[in-house]
């Protein structure tokens, strides 16, 4: 496989758009920690509250707990502004309502960089992705264009925003770029560990943050100078 290029860092503000609590923490949070340490302003938008994500917990009890854990997770990487939508966990649909909600956030926050999760059908290595990730990632990419057209969603009453310079999808099987997270790796582990209740309900490798994230970072680093790294598919705007 080809070596990865460095993600450009000539920007000052970003909006992370993902489906669930914990999505960015499985790989991408190290980059967020690096960037907030540089003084960049990063905010999060989650399409749902993760209410159906813990099998042993009723959704009504699960949602506020996962929201609390996500806020703590963001704080571990220097992010203080986190917004939650109310699309249904597990059955988020790609469509106009989702695009409208993400467009509204882009117009409000006016980021130069939009970061989302992997929206391809598979993960690196071939495992199947899930429908919520695909729907939200695809909608986030489309909302970048929507946000710049004043005639799309005029009912929002928000000025158009054409200032997005980059769009990136974390942990894509078609990754083109990477970020050195050697100095921010510990923060990425702390960010994932903040999802305490979620991790306790898991089994297997994904339930143990440090070795899981280290193995991912080392694998990406093999294509990026041998450092600990996290990967992104960088899209042209």
Quick rundown:
By secondary structure, the chain is of the alpha/beta class.
Description:
This protein has one domain: Rossmann fold, CATH 3.40.50.10320. The chain contains 7 helices and 8 strands. The chain has helices spanning 29-37, 59-76, 96-109, 131-147, 185-193, 196-200, 209-221, and strands at residues 5-6, 13-18, 41-46, 82-84, 113-116, 166-170, 177-180, 229-235. The mean pLDDT is 97. Strands 1-7-8-6-5-2-3-4 form an 8-stranded mixed β-sheet, with helices on both faces. By secondary structure, the chain is an alpha/beta fold. It is globular and about 45 Å long. This is N-acetylglucosaminyl deacetylase, LmbE family. Keywords: Zinc. One of its GO terms (biological process) is glycoside metabolic process.
Fraction of residues in helices?
25-40%
Query: What fraction of the residues are assigned to beta strands by DSSP?
Result: 15-25%
Termini distance?
A: 25 Å
Number of strands: 8
CATH architecture: 3-Layer(aba) Sandwich
What is the total domain count? 1
Class by alpha and beta content: alpha/beta
Rg, alpha carbons: 17 Å
CATH topology: Rossmann fold
> Spatial order of the strands in the main sheet?
1-7-8-6-5-2-3-4
Q: Low-confidence parts lasting 5 or more residues at pLDDT below 50?
A: none
Keywords: Zinc
GO molecular function: hydrolase activity, acting on carbon-nitrogen (but not peptide) bonds, in linear amides
GO biological process, one term: glycoside metabolic process
Protein name: N-acetylglucosaminyl deacetylase, LmbE family
